[in-house]
Amino acid sequence: MKGIVFVKLNEFVEQTWGLACWESLLAATDLPSGGIYTSVMTYDDNEIFALIDAISKQKSLHPFEAQKTFGQWLFKELYAIAPAGVHQFNDVFGFLRAVQDVIHVEVKKLNPDVLLPEFEFLEETDTALTFEYRSPRKMNYFCEGLILGLAEYVDQTITVTHLLCEHKGDKKSVIRVDKC
Ligand code: HEM
């Protein structure tokens, strides 16, 4: 996972729970990097999961809830570094399509070592969008958080449902977003 995500996780923890919390997370985890992150580097995925686990233990949050909360906070930070041209989208469904078709494509061009999720759009109406989330990382709850952060950003009220979830025995993860 790219260093930017770790740098932002550090910021998220410090803003939400303070510097002492970040330090106690580092003390509770055995990270090959020592917890010193820079944006341009790539770190082992296990480090993000170890930190999320430590957050969930220390803050009594389910790990999925911790991923979701971080994703929701992170959206505006990723939006700020998104390629020019995507800032015209002010709708959750249009933006999600742009993530798959433009944003993550550009991110991959700039950083060939990134591993980005694939979204396969299955159905869209005026009020509902359903897509399959594919990634070996199975971060579908982090994905939910990013979508909630996006909705806040564009001032739309939505709900997110995990119609199928690989963590619950399904063979794939399918997410449905409803506009309320
Ligand atoms: C609602 C909007 C977005 C959604 C739903 C989304 C979804 C995701 C998810 C779920 C991941 C975790 C990796 C995985 O699942 O394998 C991810 C990673 C990432 N995304 Fe997005 N994303 C969004 C917007 C953006 C934006 C605006 C940027 C800006 C450049 C961005 C850049 C990245 C980067 C750099 C990573 C880390 C990849 C890696 O380290 O391998 N995303 N995204």
Tell me what you see in this structure.
It holds the Pfam family HNOB. It comes from Alteromonas sediminis. One of its GO terms (molecular function) is heme binding. This is 4-vinyl reductase. The protein has 180 residues and is an alpha+beta fold. The protein has two domains: 3-61; 73-179, Alpha-Beta Complex (H-NOX domain), CATH 3.90.1520. The chain contains six helices and four strands, in the order αααααββαββ. The protein has helices at 3-17, 19-28, 45-58, 63-80, 92-110, 140-153, and strands spanning 118-124, 128-134, 158-164, 173-179. The protein has a four-stranded antiparallel beta sheet with strand order 1-2-4-3, covered by helices on one side. It is globular. The N and C termini lie far apart (33 Å). The model has no long low-confidence stretch (mean pLDDT 97). Bound molecules: protoporphyrin IX containing FE.
Q: What is the CA–CA distance across the termini?
A: 33 Å
Number of helical segments with 4 or more residues: 6
Task: Describe the strand arrangement of the main beta sheet, using strand numbers.
Answer: 1-2-4-3
Percent of residues in β-strands: 15-25%
Largest sheet: 4 strands, antiparallel
CATH architecture grouping of the largest domain: Alpha-Beta Complex
CATH class of the largest domain: Alpha Beta
Order of helices and strands: HHHHHEEHEE
Q: Which structural class fits the helix and strand makeup?
A: alpha+beta
Q: What is the name of the CATH topology of the largest domain?
A: H-NOX domain
User: What small ligands are held by the chains?
Assistant: protoporphyrin IX containing FE
Q: Helix proportion of residues, in percent?
A: 40-55%
Shape: globular
